[in-house]
Design a protein that fits this description.
homodimer, 316 residues, alpha/beta, Rossmann fold, 2 domains, 6-stranded parallel β-sheet, 5-stranded parallel β-sheet, 11 helices, 15 strands, 33% helix, 19% strand, elongated, disordered N terminus, transit peptide (chains A, B), EC 3.1.3.18 (chains A, B)
Chain lengths: 316, 316
């Protein structure tokens, strides 16, 4: 219980993490009104749902908890990403998904992006669909996938002077035309913003290997503009602020649940959230308990399904 | 004279720069055996040779000076870049050109790149041609210009395990296939090097505007590998070391002549070279003499052609 009570004030980091007891789990449920889930390694592994997770989600929903499924995938909108859940037999609403494509649109809405301005998109359909839902004008994206810069003496590319933000998300059709167009907007349109959905080095296009992620697309634009982007996806602060505001919650009423210490747990701790590590993904108990690790979640358990224990009779 | 005498030891930076007198110019010629020229703004401006420069180069050659023309353009080999000089009526040998494509090949030669290993090239023909001249095997480059990653479940890209270096130069045909291939080599081939011809944010593909430079291509690979490249072109130390070794010269016997304070002059000063600023390019005398500027060349003059003054009778 001490561990949970200390959530969010940093005191828990000095003691060795303890595997969550049933009391710890009940304390979490008493305190937390919203669970933010990293998906890979928590909800599913590759193409398989982790045992007991659907039942756990059902239990949390029955208790009235708000669930948020976070992904840095920007290639799909929330509606597009929903298919992955449905295909896996998970009953999730698109409003419960927080994709980095949505984060970009939500950010522009939050800063009251001017109605008469446009966004230039480096990225795939997800960003466009989310911008459409917010009524924000945009150009670029898939429409520029096959454009080439054919050089002639004196040639120049003319950027639309109404572009006031460049949003950069993962783009399998990244090309020099898009890089130059985005660079011109950022360098030459006064005040033009540079927004990155995320900076992930690698992404999981297929299970067979790790693929270069949006770190590449953002790196390309950073390299030609010498400007740092505003990041809106995980682990940016904006997402937490946006979720806390939307549901009217204090930070410690929100629990970040993930399988990675240096991203998920650290992100939650830095944001003042309650943090939960599950061992169903990339982190082992040995790594967690190693003296080399200083990132301690408030609670940890084998998998999210271990939360079902709170439903068992006390002496079972 | 005091300015020249102090060259290379940094003492000159504390006093206000003085426009070079005929004595300063003669002192430079007494001391310096090799001139390294930045080209744009020094030799030519856009498509026109700067007045008096061909005669100055002839004079320096007649005095036995070694001339080196430096460019961060990696899209052409030295032989390919020669055409630009010839078209402008300048009499230059390809061995006098130091392109960043050549720098990449010279670097691999200097570190004794293994004969049984290969280079993966992100870039255009210049790098390939220079690697061929050194007998270094390579793959990628223009051959991968139209390759696409067509996703299927379980798909993976398999990199050649013999790739022991990735060389990244400016590439108008940058695409996701190349980014992923380069990323795999750097992340998964043990010891694989990551070499950048240069990090220039912008380049001059046409005179009509600035174009995103190799900073974009390098930024893309940096973003997915989280590795820093070894830079071989300007302003990397390797080029100076390579030139000094090749001609058997001390650093202060080499003069860096350029039109930019924060690149050319700073590069020369950091490398212990004698430094010459010409006002025929981007830097004005006002900028040079401003109290805000702390980068002081050993000598400065209106243009390289001002060196011709040393041939005039003393009282002319």
């Amino acid at each position: 219980m001490a561990v949970v009570a200390a959530a969010g004030n940093g005191a828990a980091t000095s003691s060795k993490p303890q595997r969550a007891t049933v009391q710890d789990k009940k304390a979490i449920l008493d305190k937390v009104d919203c669970f933010i889930f990293d998906c890979d390694g928590v909800i599913w592994r590759g193409d398989s749902v982790i045992d007991g997770v659907p039942e756990t989600l059902d239990m949390l929903r029955a208790m009235g908890k708000q669930l948020v499924f976070v992904t840095n995938n920007s290639t799909k909108s929330r509606a597009g990403y929903l298919k992955k859940f449905t295909d896996l037999g998970l009953n999730v609403k698109s409003e419960e998904i927080y994709s980095s494509s949505y984060a970009a649109a939500a950010y522009l809405e939050a800063i009251e992006f001017p109605q008469d301005k446009k966004v230039y998109v480096v990225g795939e359909v997800g960003i466009q669909e989310e911008l459409d839902l917010k009524g924000i004008a945009h150009i670029g994206g898939p429409a520029d996938a096959d454009k080439k810069v054919e050089l002639k003496p004196g040639m120049l590319l003319e950027q639309d002077p109404d572009v006031a933000a460049v949003v950069v998300g993962f783009d399998r059709n990244i090309n020099y035309y898009k890089i130059q167009y985005a660079t011109l907007c950022i360098r030459e349109n006064p005040g033009c913003m540079f927004i990155a959905t995320n900076l992930d080095a690698v992404t999981h296009l297929t299970d067979a290997q790790e693929w270069a992620g949006n770190g590449s697309m953002v790196g390309a634009i950073r390299g030609s503009t010498k400007r740092e982007p505003t990041v809106v996806g995980k682990p940016a602060e904006f997402m937490l602020e946006n979720i806390a505001t939307k549901f009217g919650l204090r930070r410690d009423q929100i629990c970040m649940c993930g399988d990675r210490l240096d991203t998920d747990v650290l992100f939650g701790k830095n944001g003042g959230l309650t943090t939960m590590l599950v061992l169903s993904g990339v982190t082992t108990e040995e790594q967690l308990l190693s003296p080399d690790n200083s990132i301690h979640p408030d609670v940890y358990m084998d998998s999210l399904a271990a939360m079902l224990e709170v439903k068992l009779p006390v002496n079972a």
